[in-house]
Amino acid sequence: MSAATLPGRRSATAGRALRKWSLPGHFVLAIIAVLTYVPAYFMIDNALRSGPAMQASPFALATEPKWHNFSLAWQASSFAYPGTIFIVVVSVVGIAITTLASAYAFARLRFREKEIWFYTVFGLLLIPGFITLIPLYVQMSDMGLIGTRWGLILPYLAGGQALGVVVLRSAIEAIPEELFEAAKIDGAGHAWMFFSVAVPLSMPLVIALALLNVVGLWGDYVLPSLILQGDSSTVSVAITSFTPPPMTPNLDSYNVQLAAFSIASVPIAVLVLVMMKYFVSGLSQSAVKL
């Protein structure tokens, strides 16, 4: 009987050990969560306060909300939203289409020196983006794209290729070969197999990558500040270049900037909440297949 109950005793001992460490683990996770949301609290709280009140106590609660800060913030940055949405949508859709096609080619087609070309693309992940800023600016200037939205879209398309191709290639290679063999028996070519087999089965991972790209491109400041100026600026550039209106010379623009950042965070927050299950599914699929 003692031998029969030995596994149960081990399981109970393991459970007690797990419970022993669960409280410290939850405590550490709670601290990390608080530290993660402190910047968001600081942004929203001080967006509802005046400049002197923020300077006196930056983390105090806004007991008398200054809602006009959001009105001024929207007036200062609303012009940039249509252009920013156009740039992000075109870039993300373009990245999804081109990376899927390239990943399918690397996963399913046979051509000379395929692995060399793949690892060349993979090597792009090892190059820091800021190193290429000056050559990129010169190239966009030579192409006459400074001051145009395509001067941002084309670099975004190029910059999103490496990660997408590497991840999606692994996802397509993990699709059971029997599905492609069945399609070949039915007379399907690569185009049909791409759209009917590879794309649907890779869609959760495509959505996860698209969401990552949306978050990154929506908040990008460095490249838009070099390429676009004035009325064609993106949201991030428009917010950081905000100046107080002439009729309010004593207005502290920092509070209005925080209000503008709060407004700009809403679309991303809503998108993440709506697409979270697809994002988690895509990351899980990527973890299993990689």
UniProtKB/TrEMBL annotation:
Keywords from the named record: Cell membrane, Membrane, Transmembrane, Transmembrane helix, Transport
Asked if the keyword Nucleotide-binding belongs to this entry, the reply reads no
Q: Which GO terms describe its cellular component?
A: plasma membrane
Q: Where are the transmembrane segments?
A: 21-44, 79-104, 116-138, 150-172, 192-218, 256-280
Annotated ABC transmembrane type-1 domain residues: 81-275
A Pfam family found in this protein is BPD_transp_1
Zinc recorded as keyword = no
Question: What Gene Ontology terms for biological process does this UniProt record contain?
Answer: transmembrane transport
Subcellular location, record wording: Cell membrane
The membrane topology of this protein is: Multi-pass membrane protein
- What CDD domains does the entry give? TM_PBP2
Note the superkingdom of the native organism: Bacteria
Chain segments annotated as coiled-coil in the UniProt record: none
Q: What is its main location?
A: membrane
Query: Which family is it part of?
Result: Belongs to the binding-protein-dependent transport system permease family.
Specify the protein name. ABC-type glycerol-3-phosphate transport system permease component
